Amino acid sequence: MTGRLNSAQPYALGLFRIVVGLLFACHGASSLFGVLGGADGNGATVDAGTWPNWYAAVIELIGGSLVLIGLGTRAAAFISSGAMAYAYFKVHQPNGLWPMENSGEGAAMFCWAFLLLVFTGSGAFGLDRLLAKRSAASQEPARQQDPVTA
């Protein structure tokens, strides 16, 4: 049983990455473009250049999109994890110690999910893996063929 689960691990990790990236990108899109309810639930957007909301929304949209497609996953996940740690400690944590008290469950979960992706990589279905295969194939030296002797 463990062998089967281990062989499916890259695929489960790839699906995890896709879901987390999509949800994170949706947060950024809602804040920047007012879609999916917008920043306040009424279709509003954050003002361009405002600290930290606009910058957080840009990180959410770009970082989430990169994680979603599996391109630069580790770097994008590292920056996204840091952004969510900042959000938790600067925005949520002053309102209460526990995430249930301060409505910081989402920030905490995203922070830890992205930190996991920093260490595991993109898994299956990602462009990182596709580009690594192409790079390895192009760097593989051509086999020398010995002449056929009679």
Describe the structure.
The chain is mainly alpha-helical and 150 residues long. The protein is 68% helix and 0% strand. It contains six helices and no strands. It has helices at 2-33, 53-69, 73-92, 99-102, 105-120, 127-139. Helix 3 (73-92) runs antiparallel to helix 5. The mean pLDDT is 91.
What is the helix tally?
A: 6
User: Biggest β-sheet: count, sense, barrel?
Assistant: none
Low-confidence stretches: none
Radius of gyration: 21 Å
The averaged pLDDT comes out at 91
The helix content is 55-70%
Structural class: mainly alpha
Query: What is the helix/strand order?
Result: HHHHHH
- The amount of beta strand, in percent, is under 5%
**Ends: how far apart?**
53 Å
Q: Which descriptors would you attach to this protein?
A:
68% helix; 150 residues
Topology:
Blueprint: H1 2-33, H2 53-69, H3 73-92, H4 99-102, H5 105-120, H6 127-139
At a glance:
The chain is mainly α.
